[in-house]
Amino acid sequence: MQYSEIMVRYGELSTKGKNRKDFIRQLGRNTKAVLKDFPMVEVKAQRDRMHVDLNGADDKVVMNRLKDVFGIENFSPSIQVEKDMPTISEMVVAMIKEQFRPGMTFKITTKRQDKNFEFNTNQINNMLGDYVLDNVPGITVSVHNPDIEMRVEVRLNGVFLSSETIHGAGGLPVGTGGRATMMLSGGIDSPVAAYMAMKRGVKIDMIHFYSPPYTSEQALAKAKELTAKLTKFGGSIQFIQVPFTEAQETIKEQIPEGYLMTIQRRMMLRIAAEITKRRHCTGIFNGEALGQVASQTLESMMAINDVTNMPVLRPLISMDKTDIIKIAEKIDTYDLSILPYEDCCTIFTPPSPKTRPSLEKSRLFEGNIDVDDLVEKSIARMKITDIHPGDEFMNTDVEAFAELL
Ligand code: ATP
Ligand code: MG
Q1: pLDDT exceeding 70 applies to what percent of the chain?
Q2: 195 CA to middle of ligand 1, Å?
């Protein structure tokens, strides 16, 4: 069955007035962005609903894309027919027959926008209900809990029929929640944290630290590829790669081993905060979860967070690893994340970093290095790439992957 349009219902629209308008406008924009390669599709974001006119586009592909767009509560593929009862009746029966299994119940729900249509909602419900009972052997009516709810909308430009409601991604349209940076490694957690930030409407710019020649081109490509995976939730993402080699080498030379990790993290956060400020973003997201590793204890977070008063947001803070992995699998970043490319943090990580670093000692040891100079050098050498849906940075061939594992 070829559908004519997808009717989209909005998510959390509790907000009123201007926020509501922003929500709808942004959702329209984001939807157009993910369907950019379908020029015939028309997206009409109206007050109560959004209509996605397919004009011949493949409905399955379009629906698959819509499933990932934040701000959509659910949607129904609809078929447009002429405004005359015999045509409507035939199509209703055909659509029900496609889903019908013995023992199923149904219900017709009509909405009438066109008050000049020759029948009212009750009459339409009754006429169509009778026609279905006569033409689909074995089907019965259930008003309260039907297996098939056939929705009939009589609009000015035609009658729209739908019998399926598909869950959307929920959340808020990306771009309605301000702009922040995200510290993206190549690991499992940070892409999931990015996804969660986007789910609440935040537009994110990725900051990725890399340390050539200690880290390879593939490690960098992996972080870009992860970013490309995340564009399906809200369109293009800016990827900021920041060289970290000089800072790491200096820290390695000047700082006692037990504090290497803490000082490296302080330096990363300091650089990230400066980039965030210069880009007029208002927060830094990361993928930290309490207790996962040495740097993710409360004491460590206090010693590291000390370098900035910019909000550092940790969507995964109290999640279990198994639950984080489930989301990573759902958003299709897991297989990439587990590829064994070295991360800049692991390279100079001492065998036993302090799990309870002291804030005073961190500040004291850091006095040995010219922090501002290192921050400026890293920022001067950073590079920004616009990453769009569909961009590829790695050979995503599964067999090639398997060899690496
Ligand atoms: P992840 O799976 O996100 O790498 P993790 O559990 O491995 O997390 P760490 O490697 O200690 O933990 O990193 C903690 C957080 O620090 C990451 O989630 C990420 O936000 C940030 N981070 C780590 N490495 C980098 C990097 N190379 N570039 C940018 N941010 C990083
Ligand atoms: Mg990591």
Answers
A1: 95
A2: 15
Q: What one-letter code names the amino acid at 396?
A: T
pLDDT band for position 367 (cuts 50, 70, 90): very high
Model pLDDT, residue 14:
55
Same topology between domain 5-167 and domain 179-404: no
Residues with Cβ within 8 Å of residue 109, at least 6 apart in sequence: 125, 149, 150, 151, 152
Ligand nearest to the CA of 185: 1
State how far the Cα of 191 lies from the Cα of 66, in Å rounded to an integer: 20
CB 5 less than 6 A from any atom of ligand 1? no
Q: Is 304 in the pocket of ligand 1 (CB under 6 A)?
A: no
For ligand 1, atom 20, name the residue with the nearest CA.
286
Taking only the tens place, the pLDDT of each residue in 127-147 is 999 999 999 999 999 999 999
Take residue 374 and report the two structure tokens written for it: 């290192």
Tell me the domain boundaries of the chain.
Answer: 5-167, 179-404
The mean per-residue pLDDT over the stretch 314-338 comes to 96
CA–centroid distance, 268 to ligand 1, in Å, is: 10
β-pairing, 284-285 vs 179-183, is: parallel
Hey, whose CA ends up nearest to atom 31 of ligand 1?
Answer: 185
Q: Which atom of ligand 1 is nearest to the CA of 244?
A: 27
> Which ligand neighbours the alpha carbon of 292 most closely?
1
Question: Over 70: is that where the pLDDT of 347 sits?
Answer: no
pLDDT band at 203 (very low <50, low <70, confident <90, very high): very high
Pick the CATH number of 179-404 from 3.40.50.620, 1.10.10.10, 1.25.40.340, 3.40.30.10: 3.40.50.620
* pLDDT higher than 80, residue 13: no
Centroid of ligand 1 to alpha carbon of 259 (angstroms):
17
The total number of residues written for the chain in this structure: 405
Q: Is the CB of 188 under 6 A from ligand 1?
A: yes
- Topology of domain 5-167, per CATH? VC0802-like (3.30.2130)
**Taking the CA of residue 379 as centre, how many other CA atoms within 13 Å lie in the half-sphere pointing to its CB?**
19
pTM, to two decimals = 0.89
For residues 29-34, give the mean pLDDT. 92
Best probe residue, ligand 1, of 345, 349, 383 (max atoms within 8 Å of C-beta): 345
Tell me which ligand sits closest to the C-alpha of residue 189: 1
Q: Comparing C-alpha atoms, which of 328, 258, 340 is closest to residue 295?
A: 258
